[in-house]
């Protein structure tokens, strides 16, 4: 595993090369966005990234954030996910350099995303590929449910029960 600093240097070099190839301006904003992306360990949407840049007083436009994310996606510096169960769900991103392939658990209550790695998934991928004569390049696996630990922000079951109880009391 590379050190965070050298990882960022590798990411910067990759972005620089990609911008050059696309004939895009190698502006400081784009590299600041890359730096923000690589300082995070979460799965964020474009708007959250934009807000984070604003909070750090970077003068970047929303459009720059969105199109830089597209460039990062193109050159493999971020991964894009659709974690929602419907078509309207926002795309979420995470840095990809120096990260192992992993699967996700998505809490449908607090919308937090947890990650796990299990070597058996790779084994399934290889076996299925062999059996069906298919060269599998990647996979994505998402488990949906609810956190059972106390850190889940809201406990809807209790909240709903409380509302129901109050409604009954009122009648
Ligand atoms: Zn992830
Ligand atoms: Zn939760």
UniProtKB/TrEMBL annotation:
Q: Which UniProt keywords apply?
A: Cytoplasm, DNA-binding, Metal-binding, Repressor, Transcription, Transcription regulation, Zinc
Where in or outside the cell it occurs: the entry states: Cytoplasm
Keyword field contains Protein biosynthesis: no
The answer to whether keyword Repressor applies is yes
Give a Pfam family name. Answer: FUR
Main subcellular localisation? cytoplasm
Q: Out of the domains of life, which is the source?
A: Bacteria
On assembly, the entry states: Homodimer.
Q: Which family does it belong to?
A: Belongs to the Fur family.
Which PANTHER family would you find in this protein's record?
FERRIC UPTAKE REGULATION PROTEIN (PTHR33202:SF2), ZINC UPTAKE REGULATION PROTEIN (PTHR33202)
The molecule here is called Ferric uptake regulation protein
Q: Which organism is it from?
A: Spirosoma liriopis
């Amino acid at each position: 595993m590379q050190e965070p600093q050298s990882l960022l240097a590798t990411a910067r070099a990759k972005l620089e090369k990609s911008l050059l190839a696309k004939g895009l301006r190698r502006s400081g904003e784009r590299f600041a966005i890359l730096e923000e992306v690589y300082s995070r360990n979460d799965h964020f949407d474009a708007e959250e990234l934009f807000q984070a840049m604003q909070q750090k007083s970077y003068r970047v436009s929303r459009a720059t954030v969105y199109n830089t994310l597209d460039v990062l996606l193109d050159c493999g510096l971020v991964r894009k996910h659709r974690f929602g169960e419907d078509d309207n769900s926002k795309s979420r991103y995470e840095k990809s350099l120096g990260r192992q392939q992993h699967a996700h658990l998505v809490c449908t209550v607090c919308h937090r995303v947890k990650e796990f790695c299990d070597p058996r998934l790779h084994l399934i991928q290889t076996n299925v590929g062999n059996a069906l004569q298919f060269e599998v390049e990647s996979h994505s696996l998402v488990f949906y449910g609810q956190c059972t630990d106390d850190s889940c922000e809201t406990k809807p079951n209790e909240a709903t029960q409380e509302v129901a109880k109050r409604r009954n009391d009122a009648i």
